[in-house]
Amino acid sequence: MGNGPSNGEKKIDEEQYEDAILKKTLQLGELSRTDSTQGLIFFAGTDKARVITEILEERGWSRTKDHNVTNFTIKWCLAHQVDWNQFQEGKQLINNIPGQLAFADKINLWYTIRDYLRNRRTLDGNHIQTFLPMTFVLDDESEVAEFLRSFKKQNRTWICKPRYSYAGRGIYVISVNSDLNTIFKFKFGYGNRFQLQPRLPGYLMQEYISRPLLIKGRKFDIRVHWLVAWTKPLLVFYNHNASVVRLSLNLYREFDFDRATHLTNLSVQENHYRYAFSQEATGMTMNQLNQYFNRCFRPFHPKMCQDWVMTVMQERMQTIIRHVVRASKDKLARGAGQFGFFGCDFLLDENFRIWLLEVNDNPGVGWGNPQLNTTTKPLFEETLNIVFECFEKYKNNQSLLPIECLKNYQLIYNEDDDIDRLSHDDNQLFTDRLSISSSSL
Which of 184, 222, 198 is nearest to 314 (CA)? Predict the structure, then answer.
């Protein structure tokens, strides 16, 4: 008979932990479920309005639909709905951070990370391993010329993206046989020479990860969520519990230019002719992905640790998010009461190398799979609790850390305590240099 706690004791411990979390939530002063919520006003816009409204109205808050409201306590909205001249720093909360487009805009993300990595070195003096695919900005004539040279010389597939868009809009896969006239138009340049320029401004051309890791022959990517709960100092929290593994309904073929083969976005997949009866096949939870790796990939590679998805992969994604924050922090105009809820899209290639595809400042949550949607409300409840706790501690001149209401989030970046973590992250590799043929898995 073992000496560990019995199942009954474990259950009691879990119940005590849940009780402690609930008590802390109830102690968050005027911003939680108390009788003092009278007069607390919130504005909820974006596609998150429904869940934010449900949570806060349950706590006794009053919602206004006036996007010009100035006497709010918290405003959850898009960046263009913010009037920073009316914002009362330290007295109000708003889910935007001035300057966040340094990473939430695809072109800015490329420049921000490129410039940051140029100045970083590993302990042995080498450059940090990059985690962004090679990118050319089409508004820059020199980069257009460089892209065209690469396009003609190298047998690669490319993906053309608008700098700031959602749901896969305006994204095209370009092969060596593609007609570039759909992307470029001719113009007269210096000396009456023909030059190519983009038909639309604000596009980039990115090297396509043409050998992605596959699940049952289908392409997938991973959406994870992170929260900048406070900006002075920057406190960043990571949550994989509500992460979404997004799968294509098509079997992957590099030169199949059906958008549904290459773009796993729900807005693309829901237009697939099989979506109505294959809806649940387009999404997995992180735990389901972990089980799949243990069952289907690990037996073919004994050096892969058990639960690789929940350990090694999580650490690598967190490292990349920290690099994004460090690279961008000096571009942010920070004030007390600003916070941000973000999403990162990651892709694994067939060598298990992880790539950052983009960062979203209004990320979708949930999926067609009903099992994934059960995590949406708890995600935003905890998001709001963390922000409210920071806000209350700031107003009461208390130390922000530790955060006592954490459940599924974890602190991954504290600007005031980053020296050791920075050294570790600079030496992080984003691949095991493994290769597994996954076409049959």
Answer: 222
Number of Cβ within 10 Å of residue 7's Cβ equals: 7
Of 164, 149, 96, 101, which is closest to residue 338 (Cα–Cα)?
96
User: Do 29 and 36 touch, CB atoms closer than 8 A?
Assistant: yes
Residue 422: strand, helix, or coil: helix
Based on the fold, state whether residues 421 and 297 are members of the same structural domain.
Answer: yes
Residue-wise pLDDT tens digits, 32-74? 444 444 568 999 988 889 999 999 999 999 999 998 899 999 9
Tell me how far CA of residue 145 lies from CA of 114, 338, 432, in angstroms: 19, 41, 34
Report the predicted TM-score, pTM, of the whole model to 2 decimal places.
Answer: 0.86
Nearest-angstrom CA–CA distance, 309 and 271 = 30
Check which CATH number belongs to the domain holding 319 and give it. 3.30.470.20
- Residues 258 and 272 sit within 8 Å (Cβ to Cβ): no
Report pLDDT digits (tens) over 224-247: 999 999 999 999 999 998 898 999
Helices (H) and strands (E) in the chain, counts: 13, 17
DSSP string, 311-360: IIIHHHHHHHHHHHHHHHGGG----TTB-EEEEEEEEEBTT--EEEEEEE
CA-CA-CA-CA torsion for 291, 297, 303, 307, nearest 10 degrees?
Answer: -10
Instruction: Please check whether residues 113 and 175 belong to one and the same domain.
Output: no
> For residues 151 and 168, what is the distance between their CA atoms, to the nearest angstrom?
23
Q: Which two tokens stand for residue 171?
A: 């994204």
